[in-house]
Design brief:
disordered N terminus, Rossmann fold, 6 helices, alpha/beta, homodimer
């Protein structure tokens, strides 16, 4: 029995021809749940291996006190929010744009700096969708990253330029959602 | 600005008509990555809220020493594997079936016991696909669970009976995967 393993849900395969990548760029997109959640699950693995890990939140959650932030901080993850973050409810677009731009400049520095082995750019897609930050520039930053730095980017409608340079792209598709039955987001599960 | 929040990726909505559910049944299915990973991300949130949390692994990973298990155990999560688990490479189907059946009986007891507020049944779908355990029985166990017990079920091709009774179902769809370019699973990201 081989101890070599394909991704859990992709077996069986012939694994004899595989090569190792020093790092990966992964994208979690789509309109379903689990994009950020899966990124935080991956953070668990990175932390388990002793990787310096950082999370940059581009979109502030309405639930400012999230469980994922609490536990990630306890696990030694560096956690950054974009200024105070921007929200869907913001009525000052210029301020939101400025925060998104600052968050990207900060993130680009993290990527180029090579200090972290995993960097999560959580909900960055929206800032590209709204043309607040340049998707080609984000893609270029990913391509020219230091070899050991893996990056996970999350959010709906991820820019094609980013999809193009990513190693692994998953689309989370909603089949059904409790919210459609007017069930509110639940502490402990959703945040 | 409201602090009430819809799921992160589902805003904005009118949140005034929402009700709270004491618990939820969530399914992560599909052929893409992130099904188990998102479940472990949710475990982070449950742990952050002090919820007693358990994981039952139905399908043993080829990577027996996973990062998610290591950190979840450190966080106080109860972690159970199905006997030694069964694998894709097993050449003893009777043994694999017996382990899957035992894992389900154990899981049914966890659900009915009400001791845990979140129970992850990781990669349980395969045991139903192969008719080793009865999907209607799994669905019945979910429906009759104690009120505070949330359950996440993961795996490809989840049985319709389970989809039917779940509150939230997400399909993870592969857009592209590093594995297609013969890049092997990476410690720190994939396990």
């Amino acid at each position: 029995m081989s101890t070599e393993s394909a991704p859990r849900s992709e077996r069986p395969y012939d694994t004899s021809q595989l090569r190792s990548a020093p790092s990966l760029v992964m994208v979690n997109t789509g309109h379903g749940k689990g994009k950020s959640t899966a990124a935080f699950g991956t953070v668990l693995r990175a932390v388990a291996r002793g990787w310096p890990t950082a999370v940059v939140q581009f979109l502030k959650s309405g639930n400012w006190n999230t469980g994922e932030e609490k536990v990630c901080r306890e696990l030694g993850v560096q956690w950054f929010s974009a200024g105070d973050g921007f929200t869907w409810e913001s009525d000052d677009l210029d301020e939101s744009r400025a925060k998104a731009v600052a968050a990207w400049e900060f993130s680009a520095g993290l990527i180029a700096g090579g200090e972290y082995r995993l960097i999560v750019l959580d909900e960055i897609s929206y800032a590209m969708t709204w043309d607040w930050i340049n998707a080609a520039e984000v893609a270029s930053s990913l391509v020219s990253r230091p070899e050991p730095v893996s990056v996970i980017l999350t959010g709906r409608d991820m820019a094609d330029e980013v999809i193009e340079v990513a190693d692994t792209v998953t689309e989370m598709v909603k089949v059904k959602h409790a919210f459609d039955r007017q069930i509110r987001a639940k502490k402990g599960l959703d945040y």
